Amino acid sequence: MRMISAALLGASAVLPLLAHATTLPDPTDAAASVPAVTVHSAFDGYKSYQDGEATSWQSLNRAVTPGRRTAGMKQGQQSGDASAGKKHEHGGESE
């Protein structure tokens, strides 16, 4: 424990010397050299979004109207529903 305390005390004694070792240019000096700053644009690598050919809204509406059903499907039957043709087995009223 004494060793750690001595190391921390020695490091804290040297810290002010390191802080003064790096001298920054005077901000009021117009002739002071300034490091080059490179800023990358937020739009680097941007690719615009392009839609493909879209169908018209009229044809989409015709496709989902209630009068047009997919061949082979009955009302109340969902695609992929294997139990649509079976009777209810829960004991309640059936359709």
TrEMBL record:
<feature type="compositionally biased region" description="Basic and acidic residues">
    <location>
        <begin position="84"/>
        <end position="95"/>
    </location>
</feature>
<feature type="signal peptide">
    <location>
        <begin position="1"/>
        <end position="21"/>
    </location>
</feature>
<feature type="region of interest" description="Disordered">
    <location>
        <begin position="60"/>
        <end position="95"/>
    </location>
</feature>
<keyword id="KW-0732">Signal</keyword>
<protein>
    <submittedName>
        <fullName>Uncharacterized protein</fullName>
    </submittedName>
</protein>
